[in-house]
Amino acid sequence: MLAGGPISWKSKKQPSVSLSTTEAEYYALGIACQEAAWIRHVYQEIFKPLNDPVLIYSDNAGVVALSENPVFHNWSKHIDIRWHYIRDLIRSKIICSLHIPGINNGTDFLTKALSHAEHEHCAKFIGME
């Protein structure tokens, strides 16, 4: 968000088959990190250097743990090593990956079938009333 509005949005079919939800969302986090690193670079070129990392929220706690903890896990050994550059961005304080509970994730209504009440809550949460 810049000046109260989004400056980037992307929707893309994942080019590979994932073996788990965590893997699929980890890939999505990798793509989001690429975009965030680019936007951060452009922002610094136009305005001023940023001291704080870019916050990226995920509603999958496994993704946040995997991105922050470089320990090898049996359940994650199939994930392509190229996506682990997320850890380098986190260590460099360029990106900060945070868990957000599903109830606080305003974009759920874009990807999931929700009840009318849940849909209304999500729409209000992101400012669409």
Structure, described:
The protein is built from five helices and two strands, in the order αβααβαα. It has helices spanning 21-46, 61-68, 85-91, 108-111, 116-125, and strands at 54-58, 95-99. A two-stranded parallel sheet has the order 1-2.
Unreliable runs: none
Number of helices: 5
Order of helices and strands: HEHHEHH
End-to-end separation: 19 Å
Q: Mean pLDDT, as a whole number?
A: 79
Shape: globular
Write the SSE topology:
Blueprint: H1 21-46, E1 54-58, H2 61-68, H3 85-91, E2 95-99, H4 108-111, H5 116-125
Record keyword descriptors for this entry.
2 strands, mainly alpha, 5 helices, two-stranded parallel sheet, 129 residues, single chain
Please give a quick description of this structure.
The chain has 129 residues and is mostly helical. The chain has helices spanning 21-46, 61-68, 85-91, 108-111, 116-125; strands spanning 54-58, 95-99.
